[in-house]
Amino acid sequence: MILQSLAKKPCYESPPTNIEFPSHDGLVFKQGSEEWKAMSNKVREACEDYGCFLLLVRDEIPMKLREEMVTAMKALFDLPEETKQKHTSPKPYQSYEGKSPVIPLNESFGIDDACRLDAAQAFTNLMWPQGNPAFCEAMKSMCSKMMDLNITILWMILESFGLGNHYDTHVQNTTSAFRFMKYKAPPPPPPTPSNININVGSSTASPSASPSAALGLVPHTDKNTLTILCQNDVQGLEILTKQGKWVEVMVPEGAVVVFVGDALKAWSNGRLHAVMHRVMMSGDKERYSYSLFSVPKEEVVIEVPQEFIDKEHPLLYKPFNFAEYFTYFTSNVREDALELYAGIDIMS
Ligand SMILES: O=C(O)CCC(=O)C(=O)O
Ligand SMILES: [Fe+2]
């Protein structure tokens, strides 16, 4: 695994540093080894400072599987509208969604409890009643690899805080959700005097500047624990730095983006940062991305462990049920939903 911190500076004046960690036995480092400890600390620091980071995981998530996944997704989004609309769920963000007036370039499918074997089968059979084993296989395999990665990263974070004893409870309390996303290329901007080619003798006025980017996904923090995001080669992801500046995230081939969500931010008493991010589309290519979200199970109450509370770190969040917070958020879609719902006003 190679880890790259994002947005070292408010904007990329110099390339972010790459740190390489040799891996042993595939995904899992020898726990307790020097590499393991160094990697765990880097992961925690990135989560504290930026709330996200890039991981190069060519061994853990092979390129061939990524290619199969994008091919499978193209077939999925190419299905007729009435077939896609068959995917419905009472849960927010899980049904097929497309043609939203706010984000008209975006289409998505959410799949609950996605790492269960029967979830991939049920979804595939709904979309392709005649069967599509290639899709089902790619989805199943990708889900489990991304979940392994997700859990390993959580393990590293806990170990780095010296809280490895919380790992088993976290895993028992965790379920998963998967999301497929497609973003159409934005329509070309209307011609303006500055981008119409005018022939003046032998010289030609310069061609149009690149079309201005269009909103692909609204700014948000993820609400869950940790997110692993993969994309095709079309960039568009942006994060809001702590300095309040939107910066592009150039995701290299073979890398995934890891995000801290609100649930982990609250559990860590605000030590870890849940970063705002969005997608801005430009150019003429379609973006495909897919995410594996680790999510606290319905009944789970998020409570800050004593180890995170001291004089310098007063308790910032009261215990709350994650499912209830999520329901609250869906009817109060605002940036400070977590603070409003569970925050303790330490000034009063
Ligand atoms: O498509 C992307 O790159 C971002 C997706 C995302 O942020 C999300 O689904 O929460
Ligand atoms: Fe997100």
From TrEMBL:
Residues 189-296 form the Fe2OG dioxygenase domain. Keywords: Iron, Metal-binding, Oxidoreductase. It holds the Pfam family DIOX_N. One of its GO terms (molecular function) is metal ion binding. It comes from the Eukaryota. Belongs to the iron/ascorbate-dependent oxidoreductase family. 2-oxoglutarate-dependent dioxygenase essential for auxin catabolism and maintenance of auxin homeostasis in reproductive organs. Catalyzes the irreversible oxidation of indole-3-acetic acid (IAA) to the biologically inactive 2-oxoindole-3-acetic acid (OxIAA). This is 2-oxoglutarate-dependent dioxygenase DAO. It comes from Malus baccata (Siberian crab apple).
